[in-house]
Amino acid sequence: MIKRKLKEVANMLKGEIVEDKYEYIEIEGVSIDTRTINENQLFVPVVGENNDGHKYIEMASDKGASAALWDKKNPIPETDIPLILVEDTTKGLQNLAKEYNKQIGARVIGVTGSNGKTSTKDIIESILKSKYKTHKTHGNLNNEYGLPLTVLFADDDTEMLVLEMGMSGLGDIRMLCDIAPPDIAVITNSTDVHINDLGSVENILKAKMEIAEGLKECGLLVYLGDSFPLKKAVENLDRNIKKISFGEESHNNYVTQFESAENMGINFKVGDNKYFLPMLGRYNIFNAGAAVGVVEYLGFRPDEIQEAILEVNATGLRNELIKGENFHILNDAYKSNPISLRFALQTLYDLEGYSQKIIVLGDMFGTGDNEVENHITIGEEIDPNQVDMVFTLGKLGEYFAKGAEKNFSKDKIHSFKDLDRLVDDLRLNIKKNSIILLKGSRILRMERIIDKIFE
Length: 455
Known about the structure:
By secondary structure, the chain is of the alpha/beta class. The chain folds into three domains: 3-89, Udp-n-acetylmuramoylalanyl-d-glutamate--2,6- Diaminopimelate Ligase, Chain: A, domain 1, CATH 3.40.1390; 105-309, Mur-like, catalytic domain (UDP-N-acetylmuramoyl-L-alanine:D-glutamate ligase); 320-453, Protein-Tyrosine Phosphatase, Chain A (Alpha-Beta Complex). It has helices at 6-13, 57-62, 89-104, 117-128, 146-153, 172-179, 195-198, 201-208, 210-213, 228-235, 284-297, 302-309, 338-350, 371-381, 397-404, 419-429, 448-453; strands spanning 3-5, 16-17, 26-28, 30-31, 42-43, 67-71, 83-86, 107-112, 134-136, 160-164, 184-187, 220-224, 242-247, 254-262, 265-270, 273-277, 320-323, 327-331, 356-362, 389-393, 413-416, 434-439. The chain is globular and about 75 Å long.
């Protein structure tokens, strides 16, 4: 993580230390949250819609922060903690990360996409770390706060930075690329996720393409060539960069093929080379294809790639197989949208050796004006030959149930608005050697079912 004297931090920010006597105090790391701040960190009091971090300056001091940024528009408080005055604390956080990124000189791999960016990031990192000092985005630190914090968590000797770049509107990825301009950019796909924020699939694609526009001159762009709109947008991009496509269609530079699924991962091919990936879900052939394109460009051989991806450290709540004594849970509760839900169902269908398969589906939020129809359609698509029982959670979830009535008898469909009542009923219906898929939007926090059902 960043370790700098306050004088150096002030210079990086073009800020002003309130008292010069503090200029040789050293900070070790950065935090924007006094609930998790560690000793000697720099506290950055960001201002959000509903909260102002400046109110917590004394708490940061009491918890051992070495110093803090301070918006010069605010009155300087009476405090023992050293302060650096800046024009805007959020911009200060971003500028500090931008300057630190320049100083460490790591190669930056930026990953964005409507689906798959986290898994792609994880696979790329697992391969790169076998040769390089590599740092990646942890959890979901991929926005205007998370990405700069990720950069500032990297050590000075980091050689590769693998950064997930999320967005909720136009300009977001452009801003992230300004903080950490990618040497290599990956666009996993561009779908109608975030359509509530951006209004159209055209705007979503435009937002994703900001990573290509922010790519360094002569950099590499890796993208899903199976998507015609994305392929066309890349072909029309007037930039001096190298372009590599991946996907199942034969015109791609990296043609990916699913071969078979096991209960511990998938077998697949990229070109003529065969691989095993210890991650569930056949859709991960796309994420792996993107990763192979990146690392082969960096000089990795197929045998080195295979050995390295066996050590992939996947981010939780995404196709995580949790094994209980009498049943397993396929925990894919991080988010839900029509594409990722269909992928999750296919993953469940591919798993063999279970006496019973149960799905627990929560509301999909943010799918636009057709959200009711989207839920009904997916309910109708659930394969009764692959699924024994359907449980739903939430008001929109009831439309999964309505659609499922097309192929399931009513005694096989159980709808709830209360999570505890769902868990109680689920317990009564689980047979020995069952598998249960959990899938829902993040706000539902459906992973709570796991703790409750194992109580």
